[in-house]
């Protein structure tokens, strides 16, 4: 039987490279998205605020900034070195993440039923908001009970839902390019499908990864 040994530093490199890529992606996304909302000008928003709903834009801005904070702290939570060497920073950044997700999810629920592209997108965003809040609270409760294995699993699900905001527009653009819709009704359906895919695919990948980890630990 041949025993293969990993060279020193191999495991560290395989962990760091995806995390660095994820951090770069988050920074690029925030650098592109946040300038539209920094000036608090509704005319620059990337979504169309309804004229007769005065709280829509403030809640949208709250969701954008809280979601941005959640993305940044999620990267810190996923950093193994920080979790192992600086547990206090890990815990406090985790608390910031939980508060950002819960409040950001509640904010999106206040206007998700009024988004411009109709019932399909509205249902996708509403379900995303509910699951985002629920998985984050479940992860926090497991940490409070010191059930850390379950805490990590729920937080992986929460992270998967959190990062859906980055993939929403790419999914929509890919579907638009693939289908070339001819009218606004078709566009609305494609936008809705993109909204579903942006978090359903993430969640399925997260569940596959969790099952794989369980199987590996058992073996």
Automatic annotation (TrEMBL):
The keyword GTP-binding does not apply. The chain crosses the membrane at residues 12-35, 55-76, 96-117, 123-142, 154-174, 186-210. The keyword Transmembrane helix applies. Keywords: Membrane, Transmembrane, Transmembrane helix. InterPro entries: DUF2306_membrane. It comes from the Bacteria. This is DUF2306 domain-containing protein. It comes from Amycolatopsis acididurans.
